[in-house]
């Protein structure tokens, strides 16, 4: 992995990172917003302590652990990545309530256009803020966007110490099973 100086990471603040998306995905994973390492590399969940890629593999979504630089391979598995808020920041707490709400509106429109079977928001706090759903908890949600079902997953950031990679993989695995069951339903 490329090492960046603090100045190079700071220069990535506010950058946009292209989505990894296609029409009709099985699951569209949605992060909170790109971190500075993600913005500097152009690869989602690129910070070394982020557990997204290991958990994705441990839960059975991918046959091997992908590197952030291999993110485009997700499309071959019917998976994609986007974010609630597009602009990069050092921490999610730098985002305003209005950015979350606007991000939720834009995300709903994106989901309507792309029609994934599941939208998986990684971070219950981000989901609550984006969709004004204070009672949301980890797991399947009542809310849908057209035919797209919604699942809230734990945030894979290394800062989320409440969840281990193993317990996150269990929750990601529940979504994978639901996505497979959904795919097999007429």
Task: Set out the fold topology.
Blueprint: H1 6-11, E1 27-31, H2 36-41, H3 52-58, E2 79-83, H4 97-114, E3 118-122, H5 124-131, E4 139-145, E5 148-153, H6 165-183
Parallel strand pairs: 1-2, 1-3, 3-5
Antiparallel strand pairs: 4-5
Helix pairs in contact: 3-6, 4-5
Keywords: DNA damage, DNA repair, Glycosidase, Hydrolase
InterPro entries: MUG/TDG (IPR015637), Uracil-DNA_glycosylase-like (IPR005122), Uracil-DNA_glycosylase-like_sf (IPR036895)
GO molecular function, one term: hydrolase activity, acting on glycosyl bonds
Task: Please describe what this structure looks like.
The chain has 186 residues and is of the alpha/beta class. The protein has a single domain, classed as Uracil-DNA glycosylase-like domain (Uracil-DNA Glycosylase, subunit E, 3-Layer(aba) Sandwich). It contains six helices and five strands, in the order αβααβαβαββα. It has a five-stranded mixed sheet with strand order 2-1-3-5-4, sandwiched between helices. The termini are far apart. The model has no long low-confidence stretch (mean pLDDT 92).
């Amino acid at each position: 992995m490329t090492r960046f100086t603090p100045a190079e990471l700071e220069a990535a603040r506010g950058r946009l990172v292209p989505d990894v998306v296609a029409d009709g995905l099985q699951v569209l994973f949605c992060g909170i917003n790109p971190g500075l390492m993600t913005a500097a590399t152009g690869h989602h969940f690129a910070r070394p302590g982020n557990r997204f890629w290991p958990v994705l593999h441990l839960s059975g979504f991918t046959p091997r652990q992908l590197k952030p630089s291999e993110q485009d391979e997700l499309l071959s598995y019917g998976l994609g990545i986007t974010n609630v808020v597009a602009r990069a920041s050092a921490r999610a707490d730098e985002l305003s309530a209005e950015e979350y709400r606007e991000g939720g509106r834009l995300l709903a429109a994106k989901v309507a256009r792309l029609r994934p079977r599941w939208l998986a928001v990684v971070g219950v706090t981000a989901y609550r803020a984006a969709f004004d759903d204070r009672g949301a908890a980890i797991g399947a949600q009542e809310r849908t966007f057209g035919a797209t079902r919604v699942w809230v997953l734990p945030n894979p950031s290394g800062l989320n110490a409440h969840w281990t990679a193993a317990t996150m993989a269990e929750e990601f695995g529940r979504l994978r099973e639901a996505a497979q069951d959904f795919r097999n339903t007429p």
